[in-house]
């Protein structure tokens, strides 16, 4: 699975959690035009088995769609509310409306595609008993729910913009043009078994040299940074009691996978229009976070609060900043009324190390270009 696909899945799962928290899994809050509970609707969307319902964040309210397919009572009471609008004032216990996730206070806005602007119009349609019946409600969000929805929406928009950037970048894009130890002629003739074997052997030697030296000897730098300065920027020795240690080829694979993902994010960071000062501040903050992860055992260093003003200014506002933490293994998760980045207890140390190494290299290049 690709890096961006994985990230998109994580954010989509988070949005689903937000929607579920808004709908409520077994919330008992709201009335029915009657109280029978043998009516039913068909499930999809937010996870309510007896209703086909979805939620759509919209400013400080959310739109809830419910489709009823069988004849019978709806299990809720609709009364005249503010501005002569139909509002749910009671939801019968164990009724169809409750099982569909309808709550007290919801306002009816549409019935079977027809906009409802008065209480009388709503009641005239409901009394006909038409089925299937699709009702669209408007539900006011609490301050906490509104914040969570806004954070999830912002994360999804950021993910979409990032996917478009990755899709439009030149193939094989890196921080700088790279020169592989394998010649372009060999690459063009990989259909030849002997050439392919030689290419794979050279690629393996290339990866081994990069790991042993701590930098890529075949890759030109953004500036005149020397190999010795890159080597000097490598992180402190790793501790032995934190994170997952994968042995041999597995460890190398984890490191190489993260390196590839980080390079894509670093390309965006290095070309950010925020300016060199903001780029350097982003790199320094990311290095500090990863250094704490690699060298300190306290669990608090594996949590990043996205609501933190410093994190927002130095990481989230710089393109590529959030993606570097995702490449290192951090995961977007809800935490109460906010969103955080959490590194699992069994996180992969090689992934964090690869992200740290790539950031250290970029920091050295920034230092050389300013000297």
Automatic annotation (TrEMBL):
Compositional bias per record (Basic and acidic residues), positions renumbered to this chain: 203-214, 238-256
Gene3D superfamilies associated with the record: 1.20.58.2190, 2.30.42.10
Organism: Aureoumbra lagunensis
Residue ranges constituting the PDZ domain according to the UniProt record: 63-141
Organism ancestry: Eukaryota, Sar, Stramenopiles, Ochrophyta, Pelagophyceae
Chain positions covered by the region annotation Disordered: 29-61, 163-256
Name of the protein described by the UniProt record: PDZ domain-containing protein
Ranges of compositional bias, category Polar residues: 36-45, 52-61, 177-194
One GO CC term, this protein: cytoplasm
């Amino acid at each position: 699975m690709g890096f961006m696909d994985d990230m998109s899945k994580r954010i989509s799962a988070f949005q689903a959690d937000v929607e579920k928290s808004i709908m409520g899994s077994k919330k008992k809050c709201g009335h029915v035009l009657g109280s029978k509970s043998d009516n039913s609707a068909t499930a999809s969307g937010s996870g309510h088995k007896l209703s086909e319902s979805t939620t759509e964040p919209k400013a400080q309210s959310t739109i809830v769609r419910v489709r009823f397919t069988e004849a019978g009572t709806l299990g809720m009471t609709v009364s005249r509310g503010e501005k002569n609008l139909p509002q749910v004032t009671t939801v019968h216990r164990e009724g169809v409306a409750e099982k569909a996730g309808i709550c007290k206070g919801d306002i009816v806005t549409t019935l079977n595609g027809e906009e409802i602007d008065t209480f009388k119009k709503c009641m005239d349609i409901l009394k006909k008993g038409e089925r299937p019946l699709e009702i669209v409600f408007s539900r006011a969000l609490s301050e906490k729910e509104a914040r969570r929805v806004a954070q999830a929406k912002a994360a999804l928009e950021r993910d979409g913009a990032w996917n478009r950037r990755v899709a439009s970048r030149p193939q094989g894009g890196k921080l700088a043009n790279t020169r592989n130890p394998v010649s372009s002629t060999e690459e063009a003739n990989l259909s030849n078994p002997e050439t392919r074997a030689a290419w794979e052997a050279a690629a393996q030697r290339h990866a081994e040299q990069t790991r042993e030296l701590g930098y890529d000897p075949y890759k030109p730098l953004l500036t005149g940074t020397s190999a010795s300065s890159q080597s000097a920027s490598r992180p402190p020795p790793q501790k032995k009691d934190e994170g997952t240690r994968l042995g041999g080829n597995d460890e190398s694979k984890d490191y190489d996978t993260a390196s590839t993902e980080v390079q894509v994010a670093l390309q965006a960071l290095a070309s950010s229009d925020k300016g060199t000062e903001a780029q350097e501040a982003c790199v320094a903050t990311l290095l500090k976070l990863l250094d704490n992860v690699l060298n300190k055992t306290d669990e608090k260093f594996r949590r990043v609060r996205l609501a933190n003003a410093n994190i927002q200014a130095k990481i989230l506002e710089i393109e590529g900043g959030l993606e570097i933490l995702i490449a290192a293994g951090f995961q977007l998760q809800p935490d109460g009324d906010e969103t955080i980045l959490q590194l699992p207890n069994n996180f992969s140390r090689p992934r964090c190390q690869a992200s740290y190494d790539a950031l250290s290299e970029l920091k050295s290049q920034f230092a050389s270009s300013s000297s």
